[in-house]
Design goal:
404 residues; alpha/beta; 4 domains; five-stranded parallel beta sheet; two-stranded parallel sheet; binds zinc ion
Length: 404
């Protein structure tokens, strides 16, 4: 057998294998057990979160020779047919290329035939929002009087494009984006089974880049494995995914602290020169600032699923002491604003450079406690003045809260 990409090889075959959609899986299992399966479902959610996969598992659960059961055997003729996509009883239709009223009329004829195995006939229409209005109207007729044992599953990324008349005849399930932590755990399981060694932080990078899509995370894993072989280090994964290295951010934060503008601007130059995307650079900077912020809160890095090596956690903790929490918060805001503006700007480099300079010339804030302590110590005017200059940058709200 030829090489099978991870996304296909590791496609879930049972409800237990579906990642991050417990709310849907549990409800479907209960419906199967209680024989309360609806005749039409809408599965919505972004790409690669398990909509058609769950539809196929539901089909096997209903048509398995040992079923209906939430745990289809995977061995019987019906299970195998559905798995290979060759069965008569389960049909997958691409709504994008079969979106005309003629296609739906043909489908309605098909729906009229009874199942060969005497069980359910299941029609999965993918991208159902692509149907034309007249096609939807034709479909509505079937939904109004569904033949016995026929089940429709409509998968879509854009549920708002489905007419209300269709909506009201279906049960709707919203598939969530899967959290980076859950994705990383899933990838770790696969890597272990495939004998691939890995840094946890490397998998976390892959998981973040996938933005909640299981399929994307597996495609990215394929991509990094074809470069890195069977050992995934954070450094190599960063370079494959086009993510800027942590060293650049560390140096930049150091320059900001030391108000070294020339060197800080070089970071932008280097990022461009090395062929990175500036948007990616600014996103990474936000992440770095957030990590510094969380490093100041005991256990927070771990709670966020950032299972860093102890040495790395120590580096973040050490670096974060250089900045007040309120400063890090303001820096995160500046980076976030820049990220947003980059999307629309014709001068991305200029924006990135301005952002770096804003971060650099940001006045550090002084806490009210520091000021009161200075006053109480009876310090001379000069130190109070310099502290007051810092105070000017903290917000009025802050001051009021502390004085109350
Ligand atoms: Zn079976």
């Amino acid at each position: 057998m030829g090489y099978l990409v991870f996304a296909r090889k590791w496609r879930p075959k049972t409800f237990d294998d579906v990642v991050g959609q417990e709310h849907i899986v549990n409800t479907l299992c209960r419906a199967i057990e209680k024989d309360r399966v609806a005749h039409a479902y809408i599965f919505t959610g972004t790409r690669g979160v398990g909509k058609t996969t769950t539809a196929r598992i539901l089909a096997r659960a209903l048509n398995c020779e040992k079923g209906p059961t939430p745990t289809p055997c995977g061995e019987c003729e019906a299970c195998k047919n559905i798995l290979s996509g060759s069965g008569f009883d389960v049909q997958e239709i691409d709504g994008a290329s079969n979106n005309r009223v003629e296609d739906i009329r043909k489908l309605r004829e098909d729906v009229g035939y009874t199942s060969m195995s005497g069980k359910h006939r299941i029609f999965v229409i993918d991208e159902v929002h692509m149907l034309t209005t007249s096609a939807f109207n034709a479909l509505l007729k079937t939904l109004e009087e569904p033949p016995p044992n026929v089940i429709f599953i409509f998968a879509t990324t854009e549920p708002h494009k489905i007419p209300a008349t269709i909506h009201s005849r279906c049960q709707r399930y919203d598939f969530r984006r899967v959290s980076a932590e859950q994705l990383a755990a899933h990838l770790a399981k696969i890597c272990t089974a495939e004998n691939i060694s890995f840094d946890k932080s490397a998998l976390m990078l892959v998981a973040r880049k996938a933005e909640g899509s299981v399929r994307d995370s597996l495609s990215l894993l394929d991509q990094v494995c074809s470069f890195c072989g069977d050992s995934l280090s954070e450094k190599e994964v960063r370079s494959v995914l086009g993510l800027v290295s942590t060293e650049i951010y560390r140096q930049l934060m150091k320059d900001i602290k030391e108000k070294n503008a020339g060197s800080a601007l070089e970071a932008v130059q280097k990022v461009l020169f090395d062929g990175y995307d500036l948007h990616e650079f600014v996103m990474g900077l936000q992440e770095h600032i957030r990590n510094l912020l969380f490093a100041r809160i005991p256990g927070a890095l771990k709670a966020r699923g950032l299972d860093l090596e102890d040495s790395e956690t120590a580096v973040f903790a050490g670096e974060s002491k250089e900045f007040a929490e309120s400063d890090l918060l303001r820096m995160a805001e500046i980076a976030k604003k820049c990220e947003y503006e980059l999307k629309w700007s014709a001068y991305p480099r200029f924006l990135a450079e301005v952002m770096v300079l804003k971060l650099l010339y940001l006045d550090s804030s002084a806490s009210i406690e520091q000021l009161l302590k200075l006053a109480a110590d009876g310090n001379d005017g000069t130190s109070l003045q310099s502290a007051a200059a810092g105070l000017a940058t903290s917000s009025d709200e802050d001051v009021k809260k502390k004085l109350n």
